[in-house]
Design a protein that fits this description.
With about 160 residues, the protein is mainly beta. It has a domain of about 100 residues. The protein contains no helices and 13 strands.
Length: about 160
């Protein structure tokens, strides 16, 4: 499918479940970093969780060789398990700790294996079906906001306790 995702039916993030679910989509994603194309693929996974815009998980195979540089440290998600992090490099730019994945996701999230999430706000540009993506507020969450989503979205100051 091509075209603007604003033509999609509206979705309220308050209708997304908790615990979250994984949804597969065949939409088109492009990501630029360092002034050059980094990702151009059809088909990815979204994690949908109450109050959050979808977090996009791209197939690891969509990343050019050498563009993901693993870094030390990890985090723990009560639903998905232990996350590993990487710097993302393209066009001479390094976006620090801008990607993460689950090598051994928790039961119920096995589909995330071999997929990588990106913080859209740390890239030059992210698009879904040609529409510019806006990053979820905050320095922890990695949601991708498009025009068909209805908030408010968790992440901005004052929303941590939601």
């Amino acid at each position: 499918m091509s075209g603007n995702s604003s033509a999609r039916a509206p979705e309220s993030v308050w209708d997304y479940p908790r615990p979250p679910i994984v949804r597969r989509t065949e939409r088109h994603v492009t990501v630029n970093l360092g002034g050059v194309p980094l990702i151009d693929c059809h088909g990815f996974l979204e994690v949908l969780e109450t109050s959050h815009p979808p977090t996009v998980y791209l197939p690891r195979a969509a990343f050019p060789a050498g563009s993901l540089v693993p870094v030390s440290g990890s985090s723990w998600c009560e639903f998905k398990g232990k996350a590993a992090y990487a710097d993302v490099t393209a066009g001479g730019v390094v976006a620090e700790r801008a990607a993460w994945w689950y090598d051994d996701p928790s039961p119920g999230f096995a589909a995330l294996r071999e997929h990588v999430a990106l913080y859209p706000g740390r890239m030059d540009r992210c698009r879904i079906d040609g529409e510019e993506v806006h990053a979820q507020a905050g320095d922890f969450y990695g949601g991708w906001i498009t025009a068909h989503l209805i908030g408010p979205f968790k992440g901005a100051p004052g929303t941590l306790g939601w």
